[in-house]
Amino acid sequence: MKEKPSSGTKQFLLTLLATTFSIILTFGTSAIIDRRHKEAAKKEMVMMIIYDFDKTIEQLEDVRSAFQKAKRNQQELAFHPEYFDSLRFQFTDAFKVIQMEFSETTENIFSSNIETFNTLGNVNFIHEVSSFYSMRHKYEENLLVGYKKEMESGLMEPIGKFLEFDFPNYYFTNQLYLNALKSTRDLCMKMMKVSEDEMKEFSNQRVVNEDHGEDYGISNEQLMKEMFEEEEILKQAREKLTQNQ
Predict the structure, then answer these.
(1) Where are the alpha helices (H) located in the chain, listed in sequence order?
(2) 134 vs 131: CA distance, rounded Å
(3) Most buried of 5, 10, 77, 128, CB within 10 angstroms?
C-alpha cells in the first residue's frame, strides 16, 4: 500500500506548481506584450514610410497641374502670338516648380538605420521602398535639374523663348514618374496590409487629409500621342516665327 504524501510534501508540490505557473504566465504575457509592441512599431514605421510616399506623390501632382496649365497657355500662344503680353504672366505655377524639394528625413531613417530593416522584417517591402526612393532621385536628376536650369535662364523674354520651352515633354515625363511612384506606393500598401482608411487617419493626425486612389490618369500611349501633337504645333509656330523675322 502506497504512502500518502505528507502535508509538507503536498504544500511543496503546490508551491512548486504555483511558482512554475507564475513563471510561465509572466514570461508568456511578456512575450505577448513584446510581440504586440513590435507589431505596433512595425505598423507605425510602415505608415510613416507610406505617408512620405504620399507627400512625394502630392508634390508631383502639383507639378502636373503646373505643367498642364503652362503647356495649355503655350499652345494658345502658338496659335495666337498676339496674346503674348497677357499669356506671359500666366506661367506663375511653372515658375514655382523650381522651388520644389523633397524631404529626405524618412528616407534617411529608412536607409541608414539597421534597426529599421529588423523592425520591418519584409525583404520584398524593403525592396519596393528602395525602388520608390531610387525613382525619386532619378526624377530629380532627369527632370528637375534640367528644368530648374532652363527656367532660371528666364521665360519673361521675347515670344521665341516661350515657344522653345518644352512643356509638353516635361508634362509627359512628370506623368510617367507619377504613375510609377503611385503604382509602387499601392503595391506597398497591399504588401503590408495597410488600408486607405488607416492611412487617412494617420495623415489626419499630421493635419493632412488627402486620398490617393488607384487612378493614374491617362495611359502612357495617350500621353505620348498628346505630347507629339503639341510639339508639332510648337515646331510649326517656331518655323513661322523664324520666317517672319
Answers:
(1) 7-79, 84-87, 92-96, 105-112, 114-120, 123-139, 145-152, 159-164, 167-191, 196-204, 220-244
(2) 5
(3) 77
